[in-house]
Amino acid sequence: RSSLFFTHTNKELVSTTPTIQGTMASHIVGYPRMGPKRELKFALESFWEGKSSAEDLRKVAADLKASIWKQMADAGIKYIPSNTFSWYDHMLDTSALLGAVPPRYGWSGGEIGFDTYFSMARGNASVPAMEMTKWFDTNYHFIVPELGPDMNFTYASHKAVDEYKEAKALGVDTVPVLVGPVTYLLLSKPAKGVDKSFCLLSLLPKVLGVYKEVVADLKAAGASWIQFDEPALVLDLESKELQAFTAAYSEFASSLSGLNVLIETYFADVPAEAYKTLTSLSGVTAFGFDLVRGTKTLDLIKGGFPSGKHLFAGVVDGRNIWANDLSASLNTLKSLEGIVGKDNLVVSSSCSLLHTAVDLVNETKLDNEIKSWLAFAAQKVVEVNALAKALSGQTDEAFFSSNASALASRKSSPRVTNADVQKAAAALKGSDHRRATNVTARLDAQQKKLNLPILPTTTIGSFPQTVELRRVRREYKANKISEDEYVKAIKEEIRKVVELQEELDIDVLVHGEPERNDMVEYFGEQLSGFAFTVNGWVQSYGSRCVKPPIIYGDVSRPKPMTVFWSSAAQSMTKRPMKGMLTGPVTILNWSFVRNDQPRSETTYQIALAIKDEVEDLEKAGITVIQIDEAALREGLPLRKSEQADYLKWAVHSFRITNIGVQDTTQIHTHMCYSNFNDIIHSIIDMDADVITIENSRSDEKLLSVFREGVKYGAGIGPGVYDIHSPRIPPTEEIAERINKMLAVLEKDILWVNPDCGLKTRKYPEVKPALTNMVEATKVIRKQL
Ligand code: GLN
Ligand code: ZN
Questions:
Q1: pTM for this one?
Q2: Nearest-CA neighbor of 75 among 402, 393, 379, 406?
Q3: Using an 8 Å Cβ cutoff, are 456 and 716 in contact?
Q4: Distances (CA, A) of 38 to 394, 450, 537
Q5: 3-state secondary structure at position 751
Q6: What pLDDT was estimated at residue 23?
Q7: What is the rounded average pLDDT for all residues in the chain?
Q8: In the 3-class helix/strand/coil scheme, how is 523-551 assigned residue by residue?
Q9: Which residues of 201-236 are buried (b: 16+ CB within 10 A; e: fewer)?
């Protein structure tokens, strides 16, 4: 067989000698789709804007897929995945495969094309998109299937088999990957109009009907392996949900015969009960486990593994950017080999590499020392194979020894360790810091000082970021304009924002955050212990990517970060000006974090840095300080048994940031989600004076907590309008919302504010929306 490949660096056609597969027992769960420089993002967006054709888009995708397959084949990977590419999302792909298209998209059967597919993902002129939600505890969002008893499942997307054939034509025999049928259903929701109690798992037989057709197709195309991702197995499942796995795979077994079947799990260990279920499934040849996050998996395997089956051992972390500790991994693998047997062990990534950055090669700004500590997806592929080779007795000594010295340098580097910070953070553990005075007394003291009207109005922090503003920041970063020019421009922007808020008659002002590009990056750039990449993008949803900072060392604050701008802003008005900070838990959850110490330790360090900033703001005369914890909920562990511990140190870290302030200094926090009914007690335990929260999109879920009798004594501002939409909320509508809140919450703790920051909106939307918000507040104040 000869094969055609696009080379990785130049997109020129070259022919390569056939790859020799089957030498190393190595496997990759899945790979990033966006490309090393977000090629897919730009191709998608240009296609959506009508600037390029479907053919152009397909060409970009084909090149990306080919280069990924080639890269893995060249590295020596034996089990190379296919169908892990996606135009938008792999759950949406599964809905397409099953023909599970909600009727509102008007799909009339046949193969699902871009039109229907992208309408489901993004909506179109007449129909909104399907709902999107977080994929387990990652920052990746998937399109939630909407199902009901009437859904007519049909085999409507041949993408899986097409991709298999596409790779095969290039000389690579791949393992096609599908989201497993049970995980698919467990992550679905009942469609609109379907009874909420409808049992989604009752759709299993119908769904399996289509899976069987796909499997038959893949077999006919020559596939010898198939991978079903069933990460739902790591969740707290009820026994009837576990039984669904048993039922599904025994129903499936005869169709799967003749194929090697891998069931892949990831993101945590599989609970003991689920482990039993999983390893007893019929027709399954191999099991994949996350040995990085699955801290108990090793014990489970030691406790018993079905003989003759393959173990795919995920030792290379797919969720982070650190180089693997190869010798430690090798030890783990050797002990596993003792249990399952030499021929049954396959080295793998802990999960799909979708959740890490793509290729370190494109990092031109990181210094060599830090770079030597890192491995992005492309490097992880090489690590996996090096481990497999070492297991087979062909250790690449040079590779192992350079890995060992990189690890040693990371351990001993003075850039990583700051003894004072470590000591201070360690001292916080196990104690319970909180402000001395209780919140009611503090609110009284603050009111005496601030003298705010009832139902005080405020906004969440950012104001619209204009093209002009972004240009100023960019040019300053590139040294194209002087510091003086930059400061002048930003101050002018702040003045505009302050004047506007005074004109609107808002009570507690913000400076608008014009100096910030991103609420985490801005602080990371000023704290020590953080590094930034140029191309370290990770897909968040569709074509959207985030570029998390890398926390590599002990965190400290060399100098004040926001005091200059906040004091400047305060000097422009007599009204209180909120200091605006990002909280430690959010900084943690939106970064790539250290794997050489517990997350709690890193968070405590950040908390101490933010604490210094809070106290400096207070000294500078700022009397209201908002500490955003937008992402507090995101770090919540998947399993209930681990949640209490997380919430404890997360909430503790938040409190540490403001234990040093006087009673008269008012501490606000903000959260951008409303599904926190289950963690409301932790939120109260944060002991902020005022909390502003997203609320307007949530069907009043939030208010129901208080209706059910949870006592809340601090200030609270449930958002009165949705900032994600350009729609301008009418005064009456806002007034009605406020009235609904007043029915549940005391009038003297209620604040009036939008759902979140206004950064993504435009002034022609923001001005009338805020005008109406203040107007509605005034109408209601008169009635109180
Ligand atoms: N203060 C930030 C802003 O207004 C908060 C953003 C957020 O909660 N995501 O932009
Ligand atoms: Zn928010």
A1: 0.94
A2: 379
A3: no
A4: 36, 48, 8
A5: coil
A6: 55
A7: 94
A8: HHCCCEEEECCCCCCEEEECCEEECCCEE
A9: bebbebbbebbbbbbebbbeeebebbbbbbbbbbbe
pLDDT digits (tens, 9 = 90+) for 729-780: 999 999 999 999 999 999 999 999 999 999 989 999 999 999 999 999 999 9
Instruction: List the alpha helices (DSSP H) in 128-238.
Output: 159-169, 181-186, 204-220
Contact 338, 324 (CB under 8 A): no
* Closest of 496, 599, 467 to residue 137, by C-alpha: 599
Q: Is 358 helix (H, G, I), strand (E, B) or coil?
A: coil
Nearest atom in ligand 1 to 757's CA:
4
- Write the pLDDT tens digit of every residue in 217-235: 999 999 999 999 999 999 9
Q: How far apart are CA 376 and CA 321, in angstroms?
A: 5
Does residue 137 register a pLDDT over 70? yes
Which residue's CA lies nearest to atom 3 of ligand 1? Answer: 757
Q: Is the CB of 694 within 6 Å of ligand 1?
A: no
The Cα–Cα gap between 162 and 156 comes to 13
Ligand 1 lined by 632 (C-beta under 6 Å): no
C-beta of 390 in contact with ligand 1 (< 6 A) = no
Residue whose CA is closest, atom 8 of ligand 1?
A: 630
Task: Label residue 14 by pLDDT band (50, 70, 90).
Answer: very low
Report CA-CA distances (Å) from 564 to 405, 490, 550, 760: 42, 12, 26, 25
User: Please, which residues have CB within 8 angstroms of residue 323's CB and are 6 or more apart in sequence?
Assistant: 372, 373, 374, 375, 379, 383, 403, 406, 407
User: In this predicted structure, what is the pLDDT of residue 566?
Assistant: 98
Q: Where are the beta strands (DSSP E) in 244-290?
A: 260-264, 286-290
Scan for tokens 């953070």, then name that residue: 425
Has 724 been annotated as catalytic?
Answer: yes
Count other Cβ atoms within 10 Å, centred on residue 648. 14
Ligand 1 centroid vs 430 CA: distance in angstroms?
A: 31
Q: How many CA atoms lie within 13 A of 524 on its CB side?
A: 25
Residues whose CB is less than 8 angstroms from the CB of residue 394 and which lie 6 or more positions away in sequence, other chains included: none
Note the ipTM here.
0.99
Any atom of ligand 1 within 6 Å of the Cβ of 671: no
**Residue pair 55/5 in contact by the 8 Å Cβ criterion:** no
The strand pairing partners of 550, in sequence order, are: 531, 592
User: To which residue do tokens 């920051």 refer?
Assistant: 757
First to last CA, the chain: 82
Q: What number does the ligand 1 atom closest to the CA of 461 have?
A: 4
Counting other chains too, the contacts that 212-219 makes at CB distance below 8 Å and 24 or more residues apart are 212/252, 212/255, 213/155, 214/97, 214/155, 214/160, 214/161, 214/178, 215/252, 215/255, 215/256, 215/259, 216/255, 217/158, 217/160, 217/161, 218/160, 218/161, 218/164, 218/176, 218/259, 219/258, 219/259
Q: Does 720 contact ligand 1 (Cβ within 6 A)? A: no
Identify the three-state secondary structure at position 158. coil
CB of 497 shorter than 6 A to ligand 1: no
Q: Is 774 in a helix, a strand, or coil?
A: helix
Q: In degrees, to the nearest 5, what angle opens at C-alpha 697 toward C-alphas 696 and 701?
A: 85
Q: For residue 626, which atom of ligand 1 is closest to its CA?
A: 1
Phi, then psi, of 176 in degrees rounded to 5? -65, 140
542, two tokens = 């569709």
> With contact defined as beta carbons under 8 Å apart, do 270 and 234 qualify?
yes
- Residue whose CA lies nearest to ligand 1 atom number 6: 757
- Residue in the structure block whose two tokens are 């605006």: 580
Give dist(CA 283, CA 275) in Å, integer. 16
What is the number of H-type helices and E-type strands within the chain? 27, 23
CA distance 684 to 711: 9
